[in-house]
Amino acid sequence: MKQKSSSSSRTAPSRLQQQLAADILELIRSDGTAPGTRLAEVVLAERLQVSRTPVRAALKLLAAKRLIRRGALRGYFVADEAPPQKTPARPAPEQTEQLFLAIARDRRTGRLPLDVSERDLMQRYGATRPLVQRVLARLAEVAAVQRKPGHGWRFAPSLADAEARAESYRFRLVVEPAGLLEPGFRLDPAWTAGMRRRHQAMLETPWNETASIALFEMNAAFHEGLAAASGNRFLLVAVQQQNRLRRFANYDWAFGHERVVVNCREHLAILDQIEGGDRQRAAELLRRHLESAAALRRPPGAGPKSV
């Protein structure tokens, strides 16, 4: 009897194997992996940030439950039929946005260190690995994080204090209005039309806290688009760098929908002047826009501003 009990304890799946099995099922489902596709251990280990040994054990566990199938010779494959038991639900868009915003806030306030792992974030926020990976992938797309060699992630530098933010605005006041007056300035009509649609959609969208993410990205695209239209590559690089530095410090919007309306209308007025051929006036409006944003004072305990 004792031997049987000992053998059973050795073969029982560990908590890690069970978690990895659930993560693998979620990856299959969220990626839309076709039936019969081989599940490569090395790829899964890389995506799940673990070694191949626990992945191999998790695959064996899934095969034993007939949630995937073992190959005739070797390896494991996506089952030909949907698993008989319900797989974890894909995180709703709101879940993704909430985690995205929570990470940005904690990083901005220094509660989150410069270097993190997926497991750190999972434990801190009680989130699944696929949800954390989805958010990290989005942050990587906007250069807010980058994968470290070997293991883990590192956040990009940001504007960490009021003095740095003030310097940033002074720099932008020098650079951005000047870009509109460059001799090679040319605004693409298709870009302008698309930017107008995005601003109009922002004005019409009911406000909630996670809309601050879309607001910043729209604003960043607006200012980078004007810099790109200058035809001066160095101006564009400077504005792009400022947006990277401002990203985490600006995902929280502390001024309500009323200021969103003002922000959008000021952007649209700048476009009106450019399309009307008065770039000098557009540059003056852009300067006022930046000065107005720099003068805003955040409510106590609120997050930074975004323009």
CATH topology of the largest domain: Four Helix Bundle (Hemerythrin (Met), subunit A)
> Into how many domains do the coordinates divide?
3
Distance between the termini: 71 Å
Q: Rg, please?
A: 25 Å
Element pattern in H and E: HHHHEEHEHHEEHHHHHH
The CATH architecture designation of the largest domain is Up-down Bundle
CATH superfamily of the largest domain, called what?
GntR ligand-binding domain-like
Given as residue ranges, the uncertain stretches (5+ residues, pLDDT < 50) are 1-10, 84-91, 302-307
Q: Summarize the biggest pleated sheet.
A: 3 strands, antiparallel
Summarize the SSE layout with pairings:
Layout: H1 2-11, H2 15-31, H3 41-48, H4 52-64, E1 68-70, E2 76-78, H5 93-108, E3 115-116, H6 118-125, H7 129-141, E4 145-147, E5 153-155, H8 162-179, H9 189-204, H10 211-229, H11 233-250, H12 256-275, H13 279-295
Antiparallel strand pairs: 1-2, 3-5, 4-5
Give a concise summary.
This protein has helices at residues 2-11, 15-31, 41-48, 52-64, 93-108, 118-125, 129-141, 162-179, 189-204, 211-229, 233-250, 256-275, 279-295; strands spanning 68-70, 76-78, 115-116, 145-147, 153-155. With 307 residues, the protein is mainly alpha-helical.
